[in-house]
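Journal club prep — side note

Before the paper discussion, L.F. wants everyone to see what a predicted structure for a comparable chain looks like in token form. Sequence:
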Amino acid sequence: MTHTALPRLSLLNEHQIQELHAASLELLCTTGITVKSPQALEIFASSESTTIEGNTVLFESDLIETCIEQAPSSIQIYDRHKNPSFKLGPDVTETVFGIGVTNTHFQDPETEDIVPFARQHIAQATRLGNSLENFALISTPGVIEDPQLKNGEVLAALEMLANTTKPLVILSSNTGAFRTSLDLFDHLIGDLAAHPFIIPYVNPITPLILNAGTTDKMIMSIQKGLPLIYSSYGMSGATTPITAGGTLALQNAELLAGLVFTQLVKAGTPVILGCLPSVFEMHHMTSAYTPQTMLVNLACAEMMHYYGIPHAGTSGSGAGWGADLSAGGLLWMNHLTSMLGKVGMAPFVGGNFDSLVFSSKLLIYANEVIRQLRLFSDGLDLSKEKIDLNTIQETGPGGNFLQTDQTLTLFREIHEQHNRIWPGISLDDWFGQGSPHANDILQTYVDEVLGQLITPPDHRELISKGEAWITENNPSA
């Protein structure tokens, strides 16, 4: 019998899950999805349980249920050296965090100046994610904004590969560059399917459109034997209904349609499903993240848990202008609820300005947030050994526990729970240190972390071989 009291969040009851599932099935049976690719339409038409009307696909519920059963319930992900890294699935209780994603700008960690994303920023961001112990994977951190640079997306993929050994989540807007990147990984590492460390990431177009670029990339990923993330991004009040219930029913339907497609391409394809819920902020014409979007994220995770499908959700990044109060508050809300709920992956930490600007400082702060929240989610040990009535009785009324055996044994362990960025100093010490601002202390910590980054030993070799292969196989892309 366990004596650990674990903090956990549960949102949906069984009846609500069944209602959401039924609503999504009705949408797919009556409204369906628009499919933009002739090849994808042919794949859907291969099933007798679909109806094709022009470029609209309607689904019978038995096909959806069959595909839910066919998809693997757990997925083992490896690192670049083919060692097990983490597992995803309904039976895994620990949320996996990653850095990213596809930012167009980079925020200097010292000056906070914002510049267009360049190739060296891909390397810096990836190397930082490789060094931060609470991030298990690296998602494409930025889009190289240099029109003179050929093969920008492929070179970004190469920099990611060479600057970390952690698993990679690959995002690419260009189908040709996506294919070339997978071929590059095959050339440099080989046998991607046997020990998958590459996870392609694709989105449908909300509401209810499967575009050709997405289905093409899904087919390429499946042909390579890779697991893939299929995630629906929606803004309540714009691309999804303004209510949480309507958003959930719509986005869940999109995810089930994507699931069906993967299983029709190849039965048993490992797929990770989830959504990136936001709200359309009409005053400033941007997306926003609110308590409702966090609840939708949790509800989506619970739906995937019900289906037995690995889940990827939102990461709480995007609201800030740097490592500021706005960004920090959202990270805490997202990361805490993710860990206490059933969220499988939160792969996109580190963005600001509506996820357009990558911030190393914010990522380093988030690493500490995740560390503390892991300690929180571990719960309380209420065993007799930890309660230790004998020590309490021996100390008695008015005593202290400074030198008890239990304190001397555990004080270092308890000390590790303290914040590693900001020291707990007294008011007099604060005055004595010149009344430092919290951001000054954070900056000092950031400088220390960035000064200790380590490049993988095979970095130069991979860059050299990769650049030569790109030049030979894709010289004019």
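L.F.'s comment for the group: The mean pLDDT is 95. Keep this in mind when we get to the figures.
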